[in-house]
Amino acid sequence: MSMKRTENVKCPHCGKTSEFTVWDSINTDIDPDMEKAVRDRSAFLFHCPECGDETYFDYGFLYHNMTSKIMIQYADSDEMAEEFLDAIKESENMEMLEDIVNNDYTVRVVRSRNRLIEKLMIFDAGLDDRIIEIYKFMVLLKYQKEKEECEDPELYFYCGDDGKKAVFIYESGEYICSSGLDDGLYKELAERYGNMLPEMQKGEMFIDENWAYSFLTGNVEEEQ
Ligand SMILES: [Zn+2]
User: Fold this and answer.
1) Average pLDDT of the chain, as a whole number
2) What's the rounded Cα separation, in Å, for the pair 119 and 73?
3) Which residue from 35, 79, 81, 125 lies 20 to 30 Å from 185 (Cα-Cα)?
């Protein structure tokens, strides 16, 4: 089910308080319009009825698509991440968890809205986010090697409307460059690493840079 509530928010422009819908949980099978609204971020856009100003509000929520069997918790705090993991564990004997285990659900926890939207872009393109994280990590290593000084580069997968895929590199929020990912290269990576990917554990929902680092240092050494 979807869960939403009305909150009073203060417009950062005029300072007046107005109502705004905040979603704790979005089930896109029940609210199909939210599928697009999350992706284009309009779900988080507050239009001030007093001054007309527009502001994006950022908050954690659960994104659930039962048809695609995807559940992504965007946790905007450690507490929210823990609560979600506990809720999954506690639902051990419940129907939902059985569904998750038996029907090959993809369950993830991310720590920013941009990361949530990135995951959706990966899944929408029909790709395995673990292969994408492996590729992103390789791109990161190459970038750090070539560029002597870099400030915490952030890498995001991107798939354009034309289906062209790439990894975009940002530093301090500024776009620096990109590294293309064509279908052939993806296939090659999937063939090389696919059978090394462990069966996903219930607790292994954080598929990110750290996961890719652990996976590659654990497996590539063994391979040599
Ligand atoms: Zn206002």
Assistant:
1) 89
2) 11
3) 35
